[in-house]
Each structure stands twice: as structure tokens, then as C-alpha cells.
Amino acid sequence: MLRKLLVPLLFFAFSVADAETIRTDVLVVGGGASGVAAAIQCARSKVKTLLIEPGSWLGGSMTMGGMCVLDANHDLPSGIWGEFRRRVIDYYRPRLGYDTTHNSILRFEPYTGAEILKKITDTVKNLRVMLKTPWTSIKKDGTGWEVAVTINGQTVTVAAKVVVDGTQTGEVAAKAGAQFVSGSESRKDTGETQAPEEASPAIENITWIAILKDFGRNADKTIAKPEGYDPALYFWLKGKDIKQMLKKVSIPNDKYMINWASYNNNHPDNADKLNSENRNELYKKAKLQTLGLIYYLQTESGYKNLGLDDQFNTPDHLPYIPYLREYKRAKGIIRMVLDDIFKPYDRESKLYRTSIGVGDAVPEATSVTQPFRAYSIPLGAIVIKDLDNLLVTEQAVSVSHLVNASTANPSVQMTLGQGVGATAAFCAFFKTTTKHLNVRVIQGEILDYKGYLMPFTDIPQENAHFRAIQQVSATGMLKGIPKTNGSAIEIHFEPNDMASTEEIKPVLTELYTRGFLWFNKEKPGEKFTVGNLLSLISDYTLTDPKTLQIYMQKAWTTQFKLTGSFDLNRPVTRLEFAVLVNKYLNPFAKTVDLSGRIVN
Q1: How is domain 12-185+327-448 classified at the CATH fold level?
Q2: Banded model confidence at residue 267, pLDDT cuts 50, 70, 90
Q3: Taking a C-beta distance cutoff of 8 angstroms, is the pair 498, 574 a contact?
């Protein structure tokens, strides 16, 4: 699992026991944002991985569904999401006017996004991708699973140690026997003060996004009047600054992503309407609503020059699939709720310690009244109760309805998918099950591949101390600091702030039996000093204090790359504390369970 524990494979191939069975370590079903990230990470972690996708593109909602203006996680370029983001920017960099700033909103054409994902997967060893490959059934096989798929019209069994459900609707987990919830939970159920008093079956509306292209001032691309067209549905456009609305959803090559869910470019539904027997009728209505919006723009608003782009090989030129913000959520080992976002350090459970991904998506529409803040996604939310070696992603993640409004964002899903992949690879590599996950080993693998555990926007990956800060902060010894930025709240590390004894002491004494004795003996003041830190290290490592001091003074700038003065009497900065504690006390090595509790 960890790179240092793995030997490069000289040869990789899927073993075929007979003509009707494919054997692999990990099977990922669904090539959406999280599914493809999970498959890439699995394979990079040196386990055989098969990704099957019933459609012809990778990317799910952000390519096949047209959701190609991504404003979330632009300051959190975690791992595979950051890699995809860089490749998109590099692809469009030569185009005049394309915004290439490090934290710009990411904009791309759907088929370009799909091509970039395909190019990434094509370069990953141990990974096999099969498009246009539907699945039909799943059943348990010892600690692993057997999944029936259709390849070239023939039914083939895939035997896998671990299965990742990367479908939008959690269909694999549902057929495997997972339990689900849908709609809004009650306040009593989740403990969320902003949840409704009574549970509701209603879920977030679906949208059939449209990609429009400006064909020039004199062009007339007016479509035929859609079936059941009612202009009253679109009167909200009167008086709106449509040019400004289009500018906000512009993508390269004079195109626009029409996803005006805040107005009326969506269709209300509940989970029952999305069941397989009702889905086609719902999808038809959603498409007609979007086509009606386009027709209104062309005929009533004077934008006949805007026509449907032809990149989707569909009769109506709409995307292959709708954009689903929500469906059913699996019952996982834990359920992430709003307080895990707004009060991560004040809860009995410490789920931030088990983070496998980060997010900062501000929901388009939600009943949450306070500004949303960046957060960590806990490992237990992807692990199904009572079903070994089956992991969920996309909208099936075990979160509350209010949390799902943010975690469903494709940018967030891609960071989550990397964490899912590291978890699946852990089980496959160590020949174990999801009952025996080692949180810190999985997190270490994520960090090895440039993923984030803590959503700090002020400490980029290029920072020489990025990993030390991530690891120490994942213990809670140094907490993230909220900073308001517009409608959202960023989480900062603030490396130059002074470390306080009040913040450090509780976790230090929780982690180390000697910690309590040290604090009673030394009695540090309000601000932890450089001298206090060296005394703590000396006590923990049983190093002679004077010898340690002489060594530290020499290594302060050369080895540890610390810029502050070496003065035992001054307060130690959070950065200095993180670097030296990570090196000598290594708190990240302490085992935690899926609730974040320290396991001694």
C-alpha cells in the first residue's frame, strides 16, 4: 500500500480463469468523477483495477451530463482533482482569454473533459478501462464479489476482491443489499438544527443541462417547439440580464452551459420517481423543460443565434445523462452531518481525523442559512454497514441530506474518489476487508499521491512542510482556523500564528501517557515557546537537553528550513511546532478508529 512497501510490477494483466471469468483486485462500476478517480488511485497503488462504464465517455455528470463549469475546490487542488484541473488549463492555455490563474473557476467543453480523463487513464499501469460495458448483477463470493457484465453481447463474470460503486444512483450497492435513506431527514434523526422538524421524501431537483453555442449574429438556430411547451414557465427570464447570466456559464469556444437551477431549469422529483420503472418518464419531462427554456431564449429573448452544440451524439443534442444532485444515500459505518462541517473539533466523534477527501462547495440551493465552510470527508462515510469490501461514492455516500448538497459536486467527488481508491487498494493489497481498515495507512497513501486531508487553502502542496502540517493537523493538535471569504468560509492553517498551550495540551495528553507528567512538571505559559517544544521533544525521545539544543540550533534553517530566529524564550509558531512535532513525536502514527478516537 505505502510506496515504500510496494515493489513495482514487471508485468500486469487481468487473469482469466476461463472464457467467462475475469479476475481483478478491484472493480469500479461507473466512470463518473469519483469512479474514475477511484480507479486511477487503485491502480497507482499497485493493485489490478478494472473500471467499467456503460456509457461511451468517462466523467459522468461533468462530461456526459454537461456539468462543465466547476467552481468548487478551486483553492484545494487535491491529488487527482488537481491533476485533472491542471490538464484542462494546459489544454486551453493557448486560447486567448482563457483564465489560467491558479484558483480560477474551471471551464471546459464536456467532450474535452472526457478526452483528458481518458488520456490520464491510458497512462496508468495496472488499470483497464472498458467503456460501453453495462453490468447486470452482483453477488457475494467469500470476502469478495462476483459481478456480471456484458462484453460484446456476452455475459462475463468479474471476480473482484473489492467493488467500488461509482454509479450516480448507488445501484450496485442496492443490488448487493445495502440499506438506503432518501429525502430530508428530520432534526431529531440527524441532530442538525437546520434540518426540518419532520422528515420529507423530497430530494434535490434534477437538471437536464444544455450546452449552447453562439453561431454568429445572423444565424438562426431556433429549434422546433417542444412538446407541451408553456412559455409561462420561463417568464422569470423577463427583466433578467441574460448576457450576464450567460457570461457566468461560459465555456471555451463561444459555448455556454445552461444550468440555471436557481430559477427554473430543473425538474422537481423524489426518489420514487427516479426508480428504474419511473425514470424514463421523469427524464422525458426534464428534457422537455430544458428544451422549452432554449426555445424561449430563442423566440422570446432574441437569442436565435444560440443553438444546441452537437458534441453529444443524441437525437436532441442534449447531454447523455441528467445532472443528479441527490438520490439515495447508503447507510454507512458513520453518517456525516452538518456539525462535522461547522463544529468538527467540538463533537464527541472526531471524524476529521479520518479524512480521505476535502470539499468547499457552496450548495446552489439549500436550507442551510449560514455560510458553508470547507471540510474534510470521513472514511466511514464510504463503508457500507454489514457488507464487506463494498465501497460507495457519488450520491450514495453516507451523509445527511444537507451535507449532500455540497458533497455531490463533481470537484468534491473527485477528491473523494481518490480516497475511495486508496481504501479499496488497502483491502486488496493487504488481503483484508473493510472491517479492518487502517485509517493512517490509507491517509498516508493519499498524501503520497498529493491528496489533501485537511482543507487548508493557505498551505499549497508546493510548500516544503505541506505533509507535516497535514499530518499534525489531522490529529487535531493544531486546528484549522475559519476565514470568511464572500459566501463561503475557508479553512486556514495560519503558519505564522503562535501555538497556544490551550490548543496543544488536550491532544498531546490524549496521545502520550508521558504528556500529562510533562505538563505538570514544566507548566508552560499561555504561549508555547521554542524552549517548551525542545523540552517536550527531549522528554519524549530521552535525548539530553543540551545536546538536543545544540543540534537544533544548527539544523534550524538548514535541515528543517525554518526561518524564525532560534530563540528558546520566544513563542513557537504553528509551523515550527508542526514540523518538529511531526518529526520527533510523529502523532500521525497513533492509530485511530473510524470515529476518530485514539486506539491505544
Answers
A1: FAD/NAD(P)-binding domain (3.50.50)
A2: low
A3: yes
